[in-house]
Amino acid sequence: MANKILSIADLEEAASHSLSVSARDFFNSGATNQVTLYDNYAAYRKYRLLPRVLRDVSLVDTGISLFDRDIEFPLCVSPAGMQAMAHPEGEMATSRACAKMGVNMGVSSYANHSVEEITVAGKEVGPINHVMQLYAMNDKAKQERIVRRAEAAGCKAIFLTADSPVLGVRWNEWRNGFMPPVGLGYPMYERTSTEIQQQSHDDGFSSTNSDSHSWATEIPWLRRVTKMEIWIKGVLTPEDVETAIEYGCDGVIISNHGGRQLDETPATIDALPACVKAARGRIKIHIDGGIRSGVDIFKALALGAECCWVGRPALWGLAYDGQQGVELMLRILFDDFKRCMQLTGCRSISDISSASLAIVNAYGPLARL
Ligand SMILES: Cc1cc2nc3c(=O)[nH]c(=O)nc-3n(C[C@H](O)[C@H](O)[C@H](O)COP(=O)(O)O)c2cc1C
Ligand SMILES: CCCCCCCCCCC(=O)C(=O)O
């Protein structure tokens, strides 16, 4: 079965056969008109690779160091909620697959398994670092419990999701009357399945989530309650990179939540260069959104990202074949990335730069960056 899946597009297609329409649309869709969802992927297509030839690429080092540990290649799995809707083992299977393939994982606050279960599952397979995704919440005592549980479970960072004061407009959820399947809870939110079923998805989010969040309320508060690194997930502008630096944050994820929050925000690969320029090396810059091949990872690094994250590909892997499906997804991206490095003449991550990229110009020859 596995040998028919050669690309992330193959995996998406295969996954769609094992998901209900409502679950598939929940995972795959973006907000309103799906403009950003599409752009995230399409924007990568305007770059072309400029290979340097006759270089010895027999030994290629794809690794980077992240949270004081080497990972196999510059890719991790983004926090995404409700993974047990894709496979009963949900986030535990994702964690095991990430550990097996030597990459890190983000744990969503809306995970169907607890951070304790997820971290243990991964660590039983091999070395792995986790980060805990967090929303600003109305109930600060509960928010603090999530942070403390994550730290006690060994998470290395908080990824504070900053793009979601309210949920994005998701027509698919309204059309399908989306509800998580009966039996699935949100243990980090201390919500049982029975409680979840009593509210619409949208109402559930707005009842727990704080829309009065701000840099001044969230970051100093987080610094007081944890020693973990603090990263801001959902940054798209150089101005917010600067603010993250002012507040002493450790990193930012250039992200538009996979096109699920505000539609018609820029593709993340288009937002990246100005953010990298503003950062001037003072804060770590990672990226997610629309990354579907090793070539996309290479392009993001060439434009200045230190590491990439993928959301939906892991969900498709899970839906296709649980832990093995997520491993397959990571293997496809690893093999493609390594091959791309070899074919562009890069022996290590530090060899990857904008010199390897050109931009398609509709009116003339390719333009060098
Ligand atoms: C089904 C689903 C659930 C998600 N849940 C969360 C979440 O709970 N918290 C969060 O910060 N981001 C969440 N995200 C966004 C991802 O972390 C990530 O930013 C996005 O999926 C990256 O885009 P990609 O799916 O194109 O790779 C979710 C994404 C999906 C598809
Ligand atoms: C406590 C009940 C809340 C129910 C709302 C869950 C919303 C999950 C949002 C996950 C996410 O970020 C996404 O993109 O989807």
From TrEMBL:
SUPFAM superfamilies: FMN-linked oxidoreductases (SSF51395)
Co-factor requirement: FMN
Catalytic residues (UniProt): H257 (proton acceptor)
Keyword terms, alphabetized: Flavoprotein, FMN, Oxidoreductase
GO cellular component: cytoplasm
Domain FMN hydroxy acid dehydrogenase: 1-362
Binding site for glyoxylate: Y135, R170, H257, R260
Signal peptide: none
Gene3D superfamilies in the record: Aldolase class I
One of the record's GO molecular function terms: FMN binding
Keyword presence, Oxidoreductase: yes
CDD domains for this protein: alpha_hydroxyacid_oxid_FMN (cd02809)
Residue positions binding FMN: 79-81, 108, 133, 161, 233, 255, 288-292, 311-312
Similarity-based family: Belongs to the FMN-dependent alpha-hydroxy acid dehydrogenase family.
UniProt-recorded name of the protein: Oxidase FUB9
Species the sequence originates in: Penicillium freii
